[in-house]
Amino acid sequence: MLTFIHWDINPEILPGMLPVRWYGLLFSLGFFIGTWLIAKIFVIENRPESDADALLIYVVIATIVGARLGHVFFYQPDYYLRNPVEIIQIWKGGLASHGGAIGIIIALYLYSKDRPTQPWLWILDRVVIPVALAGCFIRLGNLMNSEIIGRPSDLPWAFIFERAHVADPMTPRHPAQLYESLTYLVIFFILGAIYRKENVKLRQGRTFGLFLVLVFGMRFVWEFFKEDQVAFEATMSLNMGQWLSIPAVLAGLFFFIRSFGKAGEPLPLPEVNPNEEKVKAKK
Fold first, then answer.
1. In a domain, 2, yes or no
2. Which residues does the annotation say bind a 1,2-diacyl-sn-glycero-3-phospho-(1'-sn-glycerol) (predicted)?
3. Could you tell me what percentage of the chain is helix, strand and coil, using 3-state DSSP and rounding each to the nearest 5?
């Protein structure tokens, strides 16, 4: 007789006391750890450590806005065109990681415009390292919410999502959120290892390209284990998440291959640490 994992976790951390959810906590934790990591990288590479806080604001806003608009336009455009007020009601759910990725890429372009020592591709190569970790935490948040569940499975590690909003919540399913979360954690360590080895000699586009290939390549694979997010996906040969992953993987291959040529030459290290300049000015 098979014994499955019964998943009946309350999405709220302190039910009936504080309306704080595990998802929100994990989301915030991922980005604050990411800010700490970026601050360490900035110190190593003589960039202003204080810019890490500004970068956090850009990335968090871009992630939320981009992920929300991604869900609106990629998954339910007809519904939100009829109910535009609900676009801002993100607490009801509906965030798409592909939209979040697009949002971050655009936001970092805007961030880099006024920072000549932190060009767009340079900052992308560093930010994708903690973003992979944030993706790990976000998928754990989805697990705590019993959402983005997998297809039925009889594997011994299958989960019975008792709180899932499906017709058959007692059916054992793939813990697809956990699959993705662990994948992103591994990718975080891979990218981190490359940065530790290359450091200031990291070629431009190397980790950004690899991030796109690994994250969205594996996203393409794990989509086969998930239930469709919206009804129209049932008529598609590949679901929306897979179709959106294909151009991301191709773009990643472009940047990764490009990093081996002249365009991928690493930026020179600034001669003076901007933080030291500020201290001198105050004195």
1. no
2. 139
3. 65, 5, 30
